[in-house]
Amino acid sequence: MPVPILLVAGFLGAGKTTVVNHILAHAGGRRIAAVVNDFGAINIDAELIAGASDGVVSLANGCICCSLEGDLLRTLATILRRKPRPDAILIETSGVADPEDIVRNLLDPVTFQEAPLETVLCVVDATMAPAGLDDPLLRAQLRAATMVALSKVDLVDAAQRQRVRDAVAAIRPGLLQIEAPHGQVPLELVFPDSPDRPPVPRPPGSRRPSFERFESLSWTSDKPVSLPRLQQAIARLAPKLARAKGLFETVEQPGRQFLFQLAGGRATLVPAGAPASGLPRARIVFIAELAALSAAEIAAVMDGCVAEGAD
């Protein structure tokens, strides 16, 4: 199964390592491999440390940390060979790095097949003056992002938070912004549930809450979909979505599975190997703000994607 990647970018002192610490300490049962710049900055409670060897710190909750040195793709290949394999990979970039080159490498078709880039999270310091966003490097980090986490929000008032939000929106309109006090980034957003997992039976129309601002809803079909119809349906739903992720077969290319992702207003579609047996032939997870979408609205739009007469 592919191992999703979270890329964490942001200016010097923005709070990237605080976000990394929070994710590793609250992995929620996921085995996360973190590739970081500075081991010394990782502040995990002593009881979580299981051991350290060969430049890798192992944590008792199944996570590991290794140093971001040398060739990134070679480091990823080493991580992917570990037993047991991680459930996800987190990469923290340097505060003086433009993530564009890293994103380009991670979007290489061979790499993406095994370790797809799931989220590019840019951490922005809410205490900065909005004019600070004029820095060319920070603007480049925002252009690469699919989501923004506002750090240090507990240190400023609502008016200052809104000023920074407005400044970010002026650079990247429509980009999802979340508040992350003390690095508290919800894993449900940065690592959405994989549609590869068998669906959990629920009463019709029921919702599975993600956290207090967002919720997750799913749609499945036992028949393949028409790709043009699917594209039209996603375009209709996109204005109300924070994220979407799915796996499906199409009537245009039977027997092939595709991975679809929508984040930060960007949609990607890549081949994902042979369809899994025993699972619906189309399954998509939608994440939206509370009450922005209903299961009935999603079904009304998505059911039209199933091609008539499809087997």
TrEMBL record:
GO terms for cellular component: cytoplasm. The keyword Ribosomal protein does not apply. Residues 197-206 have a biased composition (Pro residues). One of its GO terms (molecular function) is hydrolase activity. It catalyses: GTP + H2O = GDP + phosphate + H(+). The keyword Nucleotide-binding applies. InterPro entries: CobW-likC_sf (IPR036627), CobW-like_C (IPR011629), CobW/HypB/UreG_nucleotide-bd (IPR003495), P-loop_NTPase (IPR027417), Zinc-reg_GTPase_activator (IPR051316). Residues 214-306 form the CobW C-terminal domain. It comes from the Bacteria. Keywords: Chaperone, Hydrolase, Nucleotide-binding. Residues 191-211 are annotated as: Disordered. Pfam families: cobW (PF02492), CobW_C (PF07683). PANTHER family: COBW DOMAIN-CONTAINING PROTEIN, COBW-RELATED. Belongs to the SIMIBI class G3E GTPase family. ZNG1 subfamily. This is G3E family GTPase. The lineage of its organism: Bacteria, Pseudomonadati, Pseudomonadota, Alphaproteobacteria, Hyphomicrobiales.
